[in-house]
């Protein structure tokens, strides 16, 4: 299917066919494809919990307020924002970046590029992502406001802003997964209506991990699509400058 075909076909499906199981290996492949989505600073601060166990599915459905899409889902994928992994991911991403520079950059430019990457990932990224009861976020915000008086600088530097950034990156992964599932012939429904504390306990998520979205998966029944797709006029969300 073309991208337009995928976008036209993908719907938030509320009722899945219990007689049509889906292949967990195909769902896993779709998650692998979703991992190709871009993330801020390539930190990849997300993970996907692929749920196939019937007992866990039942518990998740209850945590999702027993919505029909959850009660009839063949499988679920819980996408989790992992801001708490920024130190480990920063180190590993820097190692990969340095290796790529040594492999593909001209010899006379390698040291300069490595130096810039090292400063970025060992100084700037830790300074931005480190938390301290909101105090570092206030310091970063004050610095960005001051420096912003003289030159352009990123203003979203509080701990809340960084949290939003991590969730935005995770959402890019989720959208890629939805399209991958549509291309595979499977249906999905993204849920934000759930008890996040119950979900975290059920999946054994560590402190600091935050549920971004729960995706129910299966094959649609006709009753699973609630009417024609409705959108506000495009002109209301588009302007050219």
3D structure, described in words:
With 241 residues, the protein is of the alpha+beta class. Helices cover 50% and strands 11% of the residues. The protein contains nine helices and four strands, in the order ααβααβααααβαβ. The chain has a four-stranded antiparallel beta sheet, with helices on both faces. The longest helix has 25 residues, at 159-183. The radius of gyration is 21 Å and the shape is globular. The mean pLDDT is 97.
Q: Largest sheet at a glance?
A: 4 strands, antiparallel
Briefly note the structural class of the backbone: alpha+beta
**Strand order across the biggest sheet?**
1-2-4-3
Fraction of helical residues: 40-55%
- What is the tally of helical segments? 9
Distance between the termini: 33 Å
Secondary-structure element series: HHEHHEHHHHEHE
